[in-house]
Amino acid sequence: MHRIAVAPSRKTLSSFWKAHGALTLLILLIACTAAASAEDSSQPKTSPFSIRVTHLLGFAGAPTNANGTLTIEADALQFQKSGKSVVQVRIGSIQNISLGDQSKQVGGLPMTLGKAAVPFGGGRAVSLFAHKKYDTLTLEYLDADSGVHGAIFQLNQGQGETLKSELVAKGAHVRDGNDNTKESAAEVSSENK
Amino acid sequence: MKTSKQILLLMVTAAAVTINVGHPLRLSAQDSTAKSSSESSKSSSQQWSVQVDKVDPGEVNLEPSFQVAIYEDLFDELSKTKRFKQVLRDGDRNAGEVSDLLILKTTVEKYTAGSETKRAVTTVSGATKLTVRSQLCTRDGGIILELTINGNVRFMGSNLRATHNLARNVAKAIKQSPLPEPSHSASHAAIDSDQVVLVELR
């Protein structure tokens, strides 16, 4: 048995060092990313909360039945209709928030005209499928003279609770007894049947 | 014969002139009287200011959105009537400085929750109905006007449109109702029950 000892060639050695360097870089990169993400989660989010809504009535200075964006920026609740100036109230001045729901016809005037054009009263059947459920968010807030204002916003289903909790977290007040709103409304409607 | 004809013609002309001159005068006098009476009633009622109180749901389980919508619509509609010098909101701290202030209290008496979908599909069911009792009171609690008003949506429109119709009816009834002159006794003492104006719109 003859053993031949072969010295490692220069080429193999350099490839080993290259692979080692790449591995070190990869580990460093992973460590940096993990540290950065940990830093992000420890700091509070600074981006403002924003949501698409329809202002139904009452928000001082905003047009009624206007689509726009509701934003929570610092300690203010702002509503902006696209292309118009921002109107806002202090979140601390909000005295009560309550949630509700309602169904509304989608499609606007074209849908109404389309339904009217369907022969033999077929438009009524279309109505069954042309309605969508929305959340409503009702705010009561005070102006600079302590006068009570009320505002109603219409949101996509499920967004009302999110917005309410964001506002409460920022210092909006909620009176007791608002949780049974939907229940009481259901009671009223069942009484009427 | 000729002379008598001339006299007759003269008399007819004189009569025509008298009628033409007298009638417009009388008309203008009537106009000015009517105008002055309407102005005086307008000015007397415009001396009042009104503060809109938050809506009391009473024993009815009314959704908060409806309470707020009635309150806001009442404020808007009363401002539009121009019957009052100032229209103030509930809790407004400037109300203390206003001398002749009436307070509009609204209590919900009946509420039938409707459905827009039902209305669209059936036409005959799903109406949203609201009945409220509105009272115009002085600061001392004396009632000078009491109204029972309905607001409904039967065919087209969202449920909240009932509050708009209701507020419009309340404002219309208040506009058409006579209010007493704002005086020290009227604004600071309770008014006799004989003076209360009761209006019921069905």
What is the CATH topology assignment of the domain at 49-180 in chain A? PH-domain like
Shape of chain B: flat
User: Taking all residues together, what is the mean pLDDT of chain B?
Assistant: 79
Mean pLDDT of chain A: 79
Give the helix/strand class of chain A: alpha+beta
Radius of gyration of chain B: 25 Å
Distance between the termini of chain A: 103 Å
Strand order, biggest sheet of chain B?
2-1-3-4-5-6
Range of helix content of chain A: 25-40%
Layout of SSEs?
The complex is a heterodimer of chains A (193) and B (202).
Chain A: H1 10-42, E1 49-57, E2 66-73, E3 76-81, E4 87-90, E5 94-105, H2 108-117, H3 122-129, E6 131-142, E7 148-156, H4 159-169, H5 181-192
Antiparallel strand pairs in A: 1-2, 1-7, 2-3, 3-4, 5-6, 6-7
Chain B: H1 2-46, E1 49-52, H2 64-81, E2 87-89, E3 101-112, H3 116-122, E4 128-137, E5 143-153, H4 161-176, H5 184-188, E6 197-200
Parallel strand pairs in B: 1-2, 1-3, 5-6
Antiparallel strand pairs in B: 3-4, 4-5
Structural descriptors:
heterodimer; A: 193 residues; alpha+beta; PH-domain like; seven-stranded antiparallel β-sheet; 5 helices; flat; disordered C terminus; B: 202 residues; alpha/beta; six-stranded mixed β-sheet; 6 strands
Give an overview in words.
The complex is a heterodimer of chains A (193) and B (202). Helices cover 38% and strands 31% of the residues of chain A. Chain A has a domain at 49-180: PH-domain like (Roll). With 193 residues, chain A is an alpha+beta fold. In chain A, strand 2 (66-73) and strand 3 (76-81) form a beta hairpin. In chain A, helix 2 runs antiparallel to helix 3. By secondary structure, chain B is of the alpha/beta class. Chain B contains five helices and six strands, in the order αβαββαββααβ. A six-stranded mixed sheet of chain B has the order 2-1-3-4-5-6. In chain B, a hairpin with a 5-residue loop joins strand 4 and strand 5 (143-153). The longest helix of chain B is centred in the first third of the chain and has 45 residues, at 2-46. The termini of chain B are far apart. Residues 21-41 and 185-195 of chain B have low confidence and may be disordered. Classes of the chains: A alpha+beta (193), B alpha/beta (202). Chains A and B meet through strand 5, helix 3, strand 6, strand 7 and helix 5 of A and helix 2 and helix 3 of B.
